[in-house]
Specification:
alpha/beta
Length: 217
């Protein structure tokens, strides 16, 4: 049976990607760079900042430089997004249903903890989460399964009995690599652009608890 549910954040709890794009556009414009939306789709959505910055700046970004550049970009994002925070349709109702089943719930994001705190505090759902893992909590990023395996441990759940909600190729891959069932949230990509998931949704209004329980029979 299902033992725990783990959510990615960007594109899964909130549709943040358009605002990350705006923040990156401002960040890169200062450096006379102008990536296209297609380039963001391939090399930004679902990726960690070390990869994104190294790719677009054309060299390895690490150490203090990575920390400084990441802080600059993520501060831009938080300033842009702080008054725009809205959950994906049906998410809060779905979360309430999970609580009624007494299922432990966690968040496993590649985003910095400051972003996670901003979003979860604004939505007033942080206290519901039994595990909160962000970029700072892992040494290997998605598609490595570390963040999901750590989440399962925190939630006292068997990875094979965990359900992951993800929207990106690397995120879905991380969930599958952890041996978990994965629901693909089609907020950013199409089915064809993701690894094969156990279920797909456009938003949480399409989902009922019987559907997810059936995945574990």
């Amino acid at each position: 049976m299902l033992q725990a549910v783990i959510f990615d954040m960007d594109g899964v709890i909130c549709h943040t990607n358009p605002y990350h794009s705006i923040a990156f556009q401002q960040f890169f414009a200062k450096r006379n760079l102008n990536p296209t939306e297609e380039e963001y789709k391939l090399h930004m959505y679902g990726k960690n900042n070390s990869y994104i910055l190294s790719h677009f700046l054309g060299r390895k970004i690490e150490g203090k430089e990575l920390a400084d550049l990441e802080f600059e970009k993520e501060s831009l994002f938080r300033e842009i997004y702080k008054t725009k925070i809205q959950p994906i349709v049906g998410y809060l109702d779905f979360l309430t249903k999970l609580r009624h089943l007494n299922l432990p719930v966690g968040v496993a994001t590649s985003a910095p903890r400051a972003n996670m705190d901003l979003i979860l505090d604004t939505l007033e759902v942080k206290s519901i989460m039994s595990s909160l893992l962000s970029e700072e909590d892992v040494s290997k990023h998605k598609p490595d399964p570390e963040v999901y395996l750590k989440s399962a441990f925190n939630l006292n759940a068997d990875p094979k009995r965990c359900l992951v909600f993800e929207d990106s190729f690397s995120g879905v891959s991380a969930g599958l690599n952890a041996g978990m069932k994965v629901v693909g949230v089609l907020s950013t990509h199409t089915k064809e652009e993701l690894p094969v998931c156990d279920l797909y949704i456009k938003d949480y209004s399409e989902l009922n608890l019987d559907q997810i329980q059936q995945l574990f029979l």
